Amino acid sequence: MTEPAPLTWAAGRVCPSLPACRSLTTRQLSSVPLQVLSHLSGLYYTLYFLATLLMIIYKSQVFSYPWHRLVCDLTLLLLMGVLEAVRLCLGTQGNLTEAEGPLAASLALTVGSGLLSIHFLLWQTLVLWADAILSAGLLVLHGLEAALQVVAIAAFVR
Fold it and tell me: Where are the transmembrane segments (predicted)?
């Protein structure tokens, strides 16, 4: 039985076992609070999407809701769902691989998703109290996540 070849690093140094060498030479830069907040944000957004969809259906049945506004609100909600899925995927990938590119793209999508949250908070055709509370909570999560993404990008660039 042959022994596996030793791992070599860029400096030509031989590392006999990767975990022991990794613990001595590198440090983990990925952000645990960002990862937890991303997971929480994904769960909250699922609740937000379903609740907002149900409220739009409710408002279209109970109130006078113009059909072109209904189509606009549903389209923006679906667009927000796609943006949120891509944002969370890129944010998780960038954080776990310690890559600033996907994390910066996630930060840009966070701004776009925040603007859509503001739309559902202020500019929607009919805004119920539940809409306002859910959108405000989502904006708080986006703000916290954006701040942690900036900190993580700064740590990765160093």
Answer: 36-58, 70-90, 102-122, 134-157
Copy the structure tokens of residue 2.
Answer: 């042959």
- Terminal C-alpha separation, the chain: 43
> Chain-centre distance of CA 117, in angstroms?
14
What predicted TM-score, i.e. pTM, was given to this entire model?
0.80
Strand partners, 15: 7
| DSSP per residue, 88-99 | HHHHHHHHHTT-
Which residue has 């506004």 as its token pair? 69
pLDDT in tens, 90-124: 999 999 999 999 999 999 999 999 999 999 999 99
Break the chain into its structural domains and give their ranges.
Answer: 32-157
C-beta atoms surrounding 84 within 10 Å? 24
